């Protein structure tokens, strides 16, 4: 039977990497049963790349994807970019036996401007063509803003229609937050989505202390921002339908991610997600 591979988006574990180091963090990932990771928000220093390689080999954990901005997300933001550090980023991928690089989000200076966004996407498409010469695929990760409509068409669909080499890492929480059914989007993106983010969606507890001073506007801010990022299986998304649609549409890696763990240890959150995914019938995907 065809199956995918369930992994971890390491953005969740950046604090653990700072505390324990890459190698011991990856050891714990292995102990939780995961055998793939997507590297994000982990500095790709020579030491970290070396430790990722060592841990990958010692613990049989695939490096599913690395992360790189095409150009700086903010003008003042430091960090590697594909435009400025192409050779280094490609070499890191080859060192880690990794065939995917993903762009985490749009640069801030194009937000809210359709023409600037599409200009950025065309640059990403050109970079995807350049990376393809090295056997590497470039992917773009969505949030909710890509479901803004222009002339009745979602921005994300426009991005897909105007590209062919660029892949799309669909994040099902952000799709749902954008007001769209994740399964419908996954089906539309068949053949372009080797990477899928599993992130659940729940309504959290309202902080009624916001009413204490009688400030209605303060309360309404809390009231309208009560959505939380949930462990897989602890929210309202139909994860089985999402995963099955992802597999049918060509997804290879199903990466667990939770942007905020609300005070829990991220390893505990990952354990909860893994247990729930096993209960859903995906034990052999680990």
Oligomeric category: single chain
What sort of overall outline do the alpha carbons produce when their principal axes are compared?
Answer: globular
The overall pLDDT, averaged over residues, is 96
Major beta sheet summary:
8 strands, parallel, barrel
User: Low-confidence spans: pLDDT under 50, at least 5 residues?
Assistant: none
Strand % is 15-25%
- CATH H level: which superfamily? Divalent-metal-dependent TIM barrel enzymes
Measured between the Cα atoms of the first and last residue, the distance is 15 Å
Structural class label:
alpha/beta
Order of helices and strands: EHHEHEHEHEEEHEHHEEHEHEH
Helix fraction?
40-55%
Number of domains: 1
Number of helices: 11
CATH domain class name: Alpha Beta
Instruction: Compute the number of strand runs.
Output: 12
Task: Kindly report the CATH topology.
Answer: TIM Barrel
Protein name: Sugar phosphate isomerase/epimerase
InterPro entries: IolE/XylAMocC-like, Xyl_isomerase-like_sf, Xyl_isomerase-like_TIM-brl
Keywords: Isomerase
Domain Xylose isomerase-like TIM barrel: 27-265
């Amino acid at each position: 039977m065809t199956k995918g591979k369930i992994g971890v988006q390491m953005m969740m574990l950046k604090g653990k990497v700072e505390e324990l180091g890459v190698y011991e963090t990856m050891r714990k990932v292995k102990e939780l049963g995961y055998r793939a990771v997507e590297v994000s928000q982990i500095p790709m220093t020579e030491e970290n790349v070396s430790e990722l390689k060592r841990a990958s080999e010692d613990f049989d954990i695939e490096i599913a994807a690395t992360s790189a901005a095409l150009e700086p997300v903010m003008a003042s933001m430091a960090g590697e970019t594909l435009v400025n550090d192409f050779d280094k980023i490609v070499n890191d991928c080859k060192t880690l036996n990794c065939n995917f690089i993903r762009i985490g989000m749009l640069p801030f200076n194009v937000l809210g401007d359709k023409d600037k966004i599409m200009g950025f996407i065309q640059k990403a498409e050109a970079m995807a063509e350049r990376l393809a010469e090295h056997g590497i695929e470039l992917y773009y990760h969505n949030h909710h803003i890509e479901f803004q409509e222009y002339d009745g068409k979602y921005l994300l669909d426009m991005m897909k229609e105007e590209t062919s080499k660029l892949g799309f890492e669909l994040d099902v929480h952000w799709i749902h937050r954008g007001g769209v059914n994740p399964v419908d989007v996954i089906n539309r993106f068949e053949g372009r989505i080797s990477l899928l983010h599993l992130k659940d969606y729940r309504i959290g507890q309202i902080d009624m202390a916001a009413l204490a001073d009688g400030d209605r506007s303060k309360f309404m801010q809390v009231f309208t921002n009560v959505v939380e990022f949930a462990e897989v299986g602890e929210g309202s998304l139909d994860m089985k339908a999402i995963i099955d649609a992802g597999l049918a549409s060509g997804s290879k890696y199903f990466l667990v991610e939770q942007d905020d763990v609300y005070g829990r240890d991220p390893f505990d959150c990952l354990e909860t997600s893994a247990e729930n995914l096993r209960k859903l019938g995906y034990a052999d995907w680990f």
